[in-house]
């Protein structure tokens, strides 16, 4: 996928998630996501942050957080969650914004959108049905060093094998399972571990 195709995929995935979120009940919005301490509403708000918060405004949040990105991110997510009454509409209306983190290409926001989509869908028992080509791009990104610097806490000293599409990555003892579960584990989510098997599982602990 070239950059234009990746940006098109990002727009589509944001709109798919916005359409889904627009159907949520109050209980679903309040359901804890796979992101520790965040509800499903918080995760949608997090995805809206780069679409509505300027770089200078986020820089100010970083100053207030004394340079701690995680604290700044939490603060801006809480602000957006409380400021936008219709998060799905905002996500849909601004879905085609081509923001990328400084020094990163469009694979970073594509990964963010798909992984956070799982953070919401998994606890709610909703299938993601992602496009396989998009999943392959995200898995490659997560295994790659650029992806690890943003998302990864999981070692790549294993060979990752998707059992439901044609993809492998890394080198070492095998860890295999559904592609979505690999995405979760590669991005530091333990929720996908139960779906995996192989000699390389001991490397993950």
From TrEMBL:
The keyword Isomerase applies. Pfam families: MDMPI_N (PF11716). It comes from the Bacteria. GO terms for molecular function: isomerase activity; metal ion binding. Residues 12-120 form the Mycothiol-dependent maleylpyruvate isomerase metal-binding domain. The keyword rRNA processing does not apply. Keywords: Isomerase, Pyruvate. NCBIfam families: maleylpyruvate isomerase family mycothiol-dependent enzyme. This is Maleylpyruvate isomerase family mycothiol-dependent enzyme. The lineage of its organism: Bacteria, Bacillati, Actinomycetota, Actinomycetes, Mycobacteriales.
């Amino acid at each position: 996928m070239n950059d234009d195709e990746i940006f098109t995929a990002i727009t589509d995935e944001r709109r798919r998630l916005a359409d889904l979120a627009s159907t949520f009940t109050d209980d679903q919005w309040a359901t804890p996501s796979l992101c520790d301490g965040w509800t499903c509403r918080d995760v949608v708000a997090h995805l809206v942050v780069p679409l509505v918060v300027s770089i200078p405004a986020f820089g100010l949040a970083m100053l207030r957080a004394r340079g701690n990105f995680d604290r700044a991110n939490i603060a801006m997510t809480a602000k957006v969650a409380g400021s936008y009454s219709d998060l799905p509409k905002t996500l849909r209306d601004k879905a085609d914004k081509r923001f990328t983190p400084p020094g990163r290409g469009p694979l970073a926001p594509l990964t963010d959108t798909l992984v956070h989509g799982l953070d919401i869908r998994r606890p709610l028992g909703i299938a993601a049905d992602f496009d396989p080509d998009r999943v392959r791009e995200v898995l490659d990104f997560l295994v790659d060093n650029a992806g690890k610097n943003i998302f990864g806490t999981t070692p790549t000293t294993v060979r990752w094998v998707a059992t439901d599409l044609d993809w492998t990555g890394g080198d070492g003892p095998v860890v295999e399972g559904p592609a979505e579960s690999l995405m979760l584990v590669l991005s530091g989510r333990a929720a996908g571990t139960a779906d995996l098997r192989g000699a390389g599982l001991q490397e993950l602990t």
